[in-house]
What does this fold into?
Amino acid sequence: MLGRTALLALFALSAAPALASDVETEARDYLTDHGFETIEMTHDSGLLTATATGKGKRIEVRYNATTGEILSQEMTMLSDAPDES
It folds into this structure.
């Protein structure tokens, strides 16, 4: 299981400016590749919020929709998730 710091490091997108659709595509691809099944994206005033659940976790990441910079990230374990031992 990835630690919170490792997840943040892996989640970082390129520092180069990107189009909002590129940021959304990269975020969605990353979340899908890491087992998140339900992914929702919302846009508001230059902010892209990605919310996803899967493998007993919920993650919410806020990006600058223009640059791809991660502005905040929060991950929680879902209490009703089955034990994957």
